[in-house]
Amino acid sequence: MKKTVTAAALLLLNMALACGNPSPANKQRATSSKRAIVRHQPANEIIPAADQTQLYLPYLKGKKIGMVVNPTSIIGGHKTTVVDSLVKRGVSIKKIFGPEHGFRGNASDGADVKSTVDKKTGIPVVSLYGAKNKPTPDDLKGLDLLVFDIQDVGTRFYTYISTLHYIMEACAENNVELMVLDRPNPNGYFVDGPVLDTAYRSFVGMHPIPVVHGMTIAEYAQMINGEGWLKNKVKCKLKIIKVANYNHSLPYTLPVNPSPNLNTQQSILLYPGICFFEGTTLSLGRGTTFPFQVAGHPLLKGIYSFSFTPVPMPGISDNPPQKNVECFGIDLRNYDTQLLRKSGRLNLSWLMDVYQKFPQKDQFFNAYFTKLAGTEQLRKQIEAGMTEATIRNSWEPALSKFKQTRKKYLLYN
């Protein structure tokens, strides 16, 4: 973590630099202040591609650009979006494409997002979540290059990689190059879960990969191309700008929320395992200030002491499951996520334990669970009371085969 430079230190530096011929005392203060600033900027700091403007700005000059972006597409910490920054630098951005939640991120989870005009820049915004998931030839007409800069969280059911698929497909079909500004994967340190059965292909699972894929967005783009997953096996012309000083074993704290209900680092790290509850009758805390850190249901009263009540929260969760009803269940807000890193595995115990304690087991799962799991087997295995070891063994050999395939597309040691 960077330490904040004190206001006093900055004042001393400014005073010294304001004089053309500073006194020895001011020289000493200025040198001291400069050293303090440098000392707080580690040489091995992880730098997302968007912040390395020297690597891609020259490539954008003179081109008509489309941007695939959302609120995670920032440059310089929290300061500004990459779109606002590039517009100020004179880049000719003609169109913006927004995924789930929209470009500025003011749409609730699952809510249709309408195409519009961005009020701040006046640039047309095409929604890729709602009426369509894929840009049309008219959307891409006149564009020389699309730039994809979205923060992923490393799970198959997080929809930004599905948007990536359709962007790549449209670019390939319309002869438009795609630049990917890569970002670290906060769950990139492991690979685990059942591999998707393509019979259950959906927008929350498009490719035969496990629940946790262990790749950055640019690595995943290379896999989509290399494995021939685009329609008619077309290939997208890719230009990748890499993250600096990154490898998959490094922890990474996201500077902004990747979506409205992944609002803490805790929820992001819990997400691969706890998201399975989205395919059940339980509430995952949507409609609270701690979504994806809890799971509960009214029928668990007397079994669990922890409780919460989901309520509508416009722009975050308009109609949360178990709305306005007190739910009882598990509280993972203080769970030590280092345990997940040490195990290197998807946590199944939360789901399996709650299922065993749920009073009405025939009402526990819903149809969405199969889409999240990517297979019918996981639900059947849990219902049959199989052990976690038996369930994990059933993921082979597909999981090991994926891990080998993945190696071909990795950009970071």
Structure, explained:
The protein is of the alpha/beta class. It folds into three domains: 7-39, no CATH class; 49-241, Uncharacterised protein PF07075, DUF1343 (Rossmann fold, 3-Layer(aba) Sandwich), CATH 3.40.50; 265-375, no CATH class. 30% of the residues lie in helices and 12% in strands. The chain has 14 helices and twelve strands. The chain has helices at residues 7-18, 24-39, 53-60, 82-88, 137-140, 160-173, 217-226, 265-274, 338-343, 349-357, 368-373, 377-383, 388-393, 398-407, and strands at residues 64-69, 74-75, 80-81, 92-98, 116-117, 124-127, 145-149, 177-181, 238-241, 294-297, 307-308, 327-331. The strands form three sheets. It has a seven-stranded mixed beta sheet with strand order 5-6-4-1-7-8-9, sandwiched between helices. Helix 1 (7-18) crosses helix 2 (24-39). The longest helix has 16 residues, at 24-39. The protein is globular and about 65 Å long.
